[in-house]
Amino acid sequence: MADEVLAVHGLRVGYGGADVLHGVSVSLARGELTTIMGANGAGKTTLLKSIMGLVRVSEGDIRLQGESLVGKGSSEIAGLGVALVPEGRGIFPSQSIESNLCVGGWPLRGGRKVQRAMLTVVYDRFSTLYDRRTRKAGTLSGGEARLLSIAMALMADPIVLLLDEPSLGLAPLVIESVFGVIEALRDEGRSVLLVEQNAEMALRAADAAHIVHLGRVTMSGKPSELAGHPDVQAAYLGGRVDP
Amino acid sequence: MIVRMVNALVVGVEQGGIYSLVALGLVTVYSATNVFNFAHGDLVMASTVLTVVLWRSFGVPIVLAGAASVVGVVVLGALTERIAVRPVLGHDTSTGWILSTFGVSIIVSTSFTIALTNGTSPSTQRFFPSYLPFHGWSLGGVLLDPNKLFVVVVAAIVAVLLVVFLRRTNYGRALRAVADDREGAAMRGVPVARISLLSFVIGAAIAGVTGVVVGPVTQADAGSGAALVLKGFIAAAVGGIPSIEGALVGGVVLGMIESFIQQFTNGKLIDPISLAALLLVLSIRPNGLMGQRGRIV
Amino acid sequence: MTGPASAPQKGAVRPGTLVVGVLAAAAVAVAPHVVSRFELYTITLGALYVIAVVGLNILVGHAGVISLGTAAFAMVGGYSVGIAHAQWGVGYPLGSVFAVIVCTAVGVATALAALRLGAFAIAVVTLAYLNVATAIVTLTTSITGGPEGLRVPRTGFSDAGLWYLIAGAAAVAWVLHFTTVRSPFGRALNASRLSPVLASSLGVRPMGVKIAAFAISAALAGLAGALYPMINGRVNTSNFDVSLSILLVLMVVLGGQATMAGPVVGAAVLTAVPYVLTHVFKENGNRTALVYGIFLLSTVVLFPSGLVGMATTLLHRHPSRSHRSAGRLGAIAEEAERGASDPIEQSAQISALLEPTQGARLEAAGISVSFGKVPVLEGVALRVQPGEVHGLIGPNGSGKTTFLNCLSGFLRAQGGKVMLDGESLAGTAAGRARAGIARTFQQPILEASASAFANLQTGVDANRKSRALAYVLRVPSARREARLSVATTDQWLRAVGLDDVAGYEAGHLPPGKQRLLEVGRAMATRPKILLLDEPAAGLTGQEIRQLEAVIRAAQAAGMSILLIDHHVDFVLRLCDRITVFAAGSVIASGSPDEIRSDAAVIDAYLGGRRAASNGGLPPQPARGEIDG
Predict the structure, then answer these.
(1) B: neighbours with 3+ CB pairs under 8 Å?
(2) Which of A21, A106, C169, C450 has the largest count of CB atoms under 10 Å?
(3) φ/ψ of residue C538, rounded to 5
């Protein structure tokens, strides 16, 4: 098995008495893009929130390069090298773009100089953000906001990048460009865990895929195995109700 | 007549400086925590009392006395966050902090009252001398009070410093992020609890500075906290929470309203009319004069 | 009922309470003969406090409005009596009535202005009430007698007589407070405090009931303020100061907010404290105030449920807090997994409860919504036929919940019309609920610490006919309606399969049962149309089957239903017709079979090219679009 940079094992997570995840196990290999797909309410966002330390874990383990993340706060986990691009807008509308990037770079060690350097790297990659850097983030369009959200996560120079439904609410062309950025990040050697409802885009970008249904992993494999598989379509439209 | 009006204007701005300073402190705390510290006015009072006691009764040089008071008040503010606010945020009701900070307000004001009335001069007030050797001068019939002008200048400086802090430093940006979207900030690795504490500390520091600066104007009075927080809140709400410019503007507006009432009608009407003004402004513009996003107050 | 339920929820008076009541009456009767004069004065004052605190408990504890201005209303009450006597020579009884009327009027007026503000603003503004009242009194010296104050009529009561009168008044006030809290109005107050959204969805106007609560509190404070000068013959501003307001709030909080015994316990403890302090520790006013502050802080931080709340917890009255009951709940959940109620019987029960029902026709056309510059819904049209179960599906973020919020009045659309049975539907959420729209929410909104029974009863309450006052005064027609409400609630619980958990706290039920409870509550309002927002989300297979049975039963009874859900198979099975949203527009509408094989629909869900015509749609706002 390739170098596992993130390993989730037997994760059980519940909200106030009811379990949302019933023993989920997934892993992310270094330099690869693994996608978690499934219908809404399946528990995908909860999985990312658990990794990020925002939700309490009842059972199971989460390891980043061998170090356990369970029980640690989100601030500490971010400091260890995990960055989350949240669902929805995920930016701070009342602040400027550069301010937003600085907030994203909070976990970065090394003070102002390192922050400046990181800003240069990020502006290099996202020239439109550089052009608009003094403008308020609330004025961005959907696609631009999504790119800003990803850029904020990159500011932390993370070991693992978590993305929560980046295609949500975006027009098809914009989705293509966003996914272009995501795939480029993977090609450069970043490890990416992508949660996505849009099965087609997800399978095209991924090196490995899992399907989550009602809090359990029901299918895992290579995208080539899953694409076109009737069960994938069934899981979304008219499949089994009971796992 | 003109002279009276100009006088009222000037006094309004001067008085407004005090309210602006109090409002700035309240708004700073609120912006990161969605909590208004009921004890904020008492923190200002505490600073004033500590300063004058250290300075006049113990002969400590004014700068040192002022600095020590600010430090003392900062400690009180941090304690308030830890003891009265943090534990309550997790409770069933979302408004427990109102009563708990009110409790802190009572504790602080009565403690100081007890301390002041215990000794040789059993009054809740202490005389706070002017900082400057002259007591004001008259410009064509218009009275200018240097102590009050000093307050206005300090209010402007504090506002500028706050703006710089919030817009140009990483901690300031983190504070605004927490105010914008608490969970979103946590998702980015911002230590939300620590930032909340920081906002209380900054708010208390502002209260400390306020107390030192307004001493000659308000004098030291152990029971003045409640009135101060009320006025400061009215100023902030009228100006528009959580805007910093709003706190400045609101303070001046409130100061003007009060001085005009004082100048042209009966001083006792100040409280009812200020309250009525608050309700009026908020019913027309729910987000204050410099209004911002959705229902805040 | 099989669960360890607490009978008081049903309005009956428990034997324990009766015993306490008898003992209390005996103590009151005996008191003047066994205590000293000063002690009699103290407990008379305490009884006076009870009158004000009972009203404040309704306002602060139940309505959740933190008012720090009670002393101002007491002042108004006292001065009303004095002025009535000075100006018109009116005696005490009439003077007191006058005082109550004045205070109620002032209370309503100030509430109308102040309650629109946020919670902190209300606290600060009401704290200033006393300043305002004092200023007004000082400015109208000719009427109010200036610093001397006013004399009040002589009453001719002895000290003991005064005690009986005031203790009697306090008892009456407490009983009325009891009946008020146990009435539908009281339940509406609790709902408004916990969730204005929930209250609106049940047809309650949160602002309206809060204003009423404020008026009640003002009236009772005014009464207490009117009776106070009986003790010393005079009223002036020094009798009413800020520490009185603080003391009264502290009595509510320390005793236990929103509990029955809280006001009395709080008043008793806090009347005893200054007595102890003055007599044992030779105390002056300042240290007493300091003690109040410490009490307030520690109570709110450490034991927010107050003394009565703590006592109740210690006595294991709340079933779901004890370890034993948690196990029982688990057992019940497992049992439910194995086999639910008989669907045919369930259907018959629900039909009987809903009869006569005529499901309404709902027509929405041209609905457009934008959040700022971001369009979320564009010209959406949808029609639900009478008695139809109409499904609404679509990918995440396509605007389904936004649409539901528009229909139910929680969000104002920028364009379009909604018609219910041919009549235009407009206005607030509460108004639409009363017009016959019932709904559930993505996360069930329940009163977590109330029982399942109490929660469902709020739905049944929506159909009551008697006025609030009739309930408070326990008029026979209201009592009949209350008994009927209890019986109907029991029937509903049985019909949706929740009768075994009726007494358990709603917050401790498993999600499947919480969902059923919310759906049952919505159905119990006998709506013209029921809007269900993702009811199957997070449910197990068995729970989904139970939900399906309940929905089918309602459909059989003729109810119109609009069902949003992500379990597409569930929707395809259950619905007569289905509409599909994508990116804020309707992309398909038809029978389940048509939808199942519609290429555009499959595309929309699995990605690829969208069928929507405009490609540059900005993103959806974050979740939680409900605009309370």
Answers:
(1) A, C
(2) A21
(3) 75, 5
Whether residue A225 has pLDDT greater than 80: yes
Task: Give the distance from residue C250's alpha carbon to the nearest chain A alpha carbon, in angstroms.
Answer: 32
Please check the confidence at residue B183 and state whether its pLDDT lies above 60.
yes
pTM of the model: 0.84
Residues of C in contact with B286 (CB under 8 A): 116
| Residues in A touching C396 (Cβ below 8 Å) | 40, 165, 168, 197
pLDDT band at B91 (very low <50, low <70, confident <90, very high): confident
* Beta-carbon count within 10 A of B83 CB: 16
| Torsion-angle region of A21 (φ positive above 0: left; ψ -120 to 50: alpha; else: beta) | beta
Amino acid at B67: A
C-beta atoms of C619 and A236 within 8 A? no
Q: Which residue of B has its CA nearest to A161?
A: B188
Which pLDDT band, with edges at 50, 70 and 90, does C607 fall under?
low
Assess contact for C62 and C189: CB atoms under 8 A: yes
Residues in A touching B194 (Cβ below 8 Å): 75
Say whether A75 and B190 touch across the interface (CB within 8 A).
yes
Report whether pLDDT(A33) > 50. yes
Residues with Cβ within 8 Å of residue C296, at least 6 apart in sequence: B99, B100, B102, B103, B106, C246, C249, C250, C253, C254
pLDDT in tens, A199-213: 788 888 999 999 887
List chain B residues with CB under 8 Å of C117.
Answer: 279, 282, 297
> E strands, chain B, where?
125-126, 137-139, 142-144, 220-221
Collapsed DSSP state (helix, strand, coil) of residue B271: helix
Q: Neighbouring chains of A at 3+ CB pairs within 8 Å? A: B, C
Interatomic CA distance for residues C576 and C563, integer angstroms: 11
Q: What are the residues whose beta carbons fall under 8 Å from the beta carbon of C565, sequence distance 6 or more? A: C391, C393, C532, C534, C535, C536, C537, C571
The mean predicted confidence, pLDDT, of chain C is 83
Both structure tokens of A231: 């069960």
Residue of C540, C571, C574 to mutate when probing chain A, most A C-beta within 10 A: C540
- In one-letter notation, the amino acid at residue C441 is F
ipTM confidence? 0.90
d(CA A84, CA A189): 17
Residue C141 reports pLDDT greater than 60: yes
Contact C293, B110 (CB under 8 A): yes
Asked whether residue A31 carries a pLDDT value surpassing 90, the answer given is yes
Q: Which of C379, C381, C431, C369 is nearest to C405 (CA)?
A: C369
3 state SS for A96-112:
EHHHHHHHHCCCCCCHH
